[in-house]
């Protein structure tokens, strides 16, 4: 697991940008990363800052229409789904995210 501080955060951003560029160039649909959050949540704020350039979707679990997500994740935020499937919780694990994005990239390359 990578903790985002200083150069590590920049390295993670660069690596993630490269993966998204490769996915985009392969004409594969870009993955959707969903962040489940609530306020206050310092870990969510950190995750949002790191992932801001790649923001696709954010779900505020405290809104009435998201009560099922609140019941499920109220003690685990931030929680991330990639293409609708659970990916990780509590901290951004760039290694795990990169592995999943690489899998998507390989699937896209195989299907072209």
Characterise the protein shown here:
Helices cover 49% and strands 16% of the residues. The protein has four helices and four strands. The protein has a four-stranded mixed sheet with strand order 2-1-3-4, with helices on one face. A hairpin with a 2-residue loop joins strand 3 and strand 4 (85-89). Mean pLDDT is 75; it is low at 1-11.
Write the layout of secondary structure elements.
Blueprint: H1 6-25, E1 33-37, H2 42-51, E2 57-60, H3 67-73, E3 79-82, E4 85-89, H4 94-111
Parallel strand pairs: 1-2
Antiparallel strand pairs: 1-3, 3-4
Helix pairs in contact: 1-4
Protein name: Glutaredoxin-like protein
Organism: Balaenoptera musculus
Family: Belongs to the glutaredoxin family.
Helix coverage percent of residues?
40-55%
Q: Which secondary-structure class do the elements indicate?
A: alpha+beta
Number of strands: 4
Output the strand order for the largest sheet: 2-1-3-4
Indicate the proportion of strand residues. 15-25%
Largest sheet: 4 strands, mixed
The whole-angstrom Rg is 14 Å
Number of helical elements: 4
Low-pLDDT regions: 1-11
Oligomer: single chain
The shape, in one word, is globular
Order of helices and strands: HEHEHEEH
Task: Tag the structure with descriptive keywords.
4 helices, 112 residues, globular, alpha+beta, disordered N terminus, four-stranded mixed beta sheet
